[in-house]
């Protein structure tokens, strides 16, 4: 089953959106397989966002991501990476439709409250960066047979 790394950024946590964001993934049918609250180090965040090093907003992004605890999660399910990105909305909340998390709860690209892996390849890289193997829970979703044919 495909897995994606989803994180509630410091602004999402501080604004009390943790339960609301989790609820959207639960109600869609994805299976939660890992979750923790963390204050990642500068080096960890620079590795997570390594593709963006050199962008003008990079240092600001790292400072924002260090401004408070993050809720890091792994969700599994059919097409979890693309589907998760649809639940989040566009990178820029101004382009995110109402009904998406960013479209409902945020206004600006630099405070867009959540992260989601953009491909299966980055998901597996991000999951390995944020979680140890022993932190991932292998379990059967009781409603599995009602969600999949
Ligand atoms: P996403 O988080 O949708 O995968 P991304 O990987 O391109 O988007 O960028 C990572 C984060 O960096 C994004 O969520 C918010 C921030 N960011 C991206 N582009 C930005 C910009 N032009 N100005 C300020 N922050 C930006
Ligand atoms: Mg990205």
From TrEMBL:
Catalytic center residues: 115
Domain annotation Nucleoside diphosphate kinase-like: ranges: 1-138
E.C. code: 2.7.4.6
CDD domains: NDPk_I (cd04413)
Gene Ontology BP annotations: CTP biosynthetic process; GTP biosynthetic process; UTP biosynthetic process
Catalytic activity: a 2'-deoxyribonucleoside 5'-diphosphate + ATP = a 2'-deoxyribonucleoside 5'-triphosphate + ADP
Tree of life domain: Eukaryota
GO MF, one example: nucleoside diphosphate kinase activity
UniProt entry tagged with the keyword Transcription: no
Cofactors: Mg(2+)
Endpoints of the signal sequence: none
Pfam families, A to Z: NDK
PANTHER family per UniProt: NUCLEOSIDE DIPHOSPHATE KINASE
NCBIfam families cross-referenced by the UniProt entry: PRK00668.1
Protein family (similarity comment): Belongs to the NDK family.
Name of protein: Nucleoside diphosphate kinase
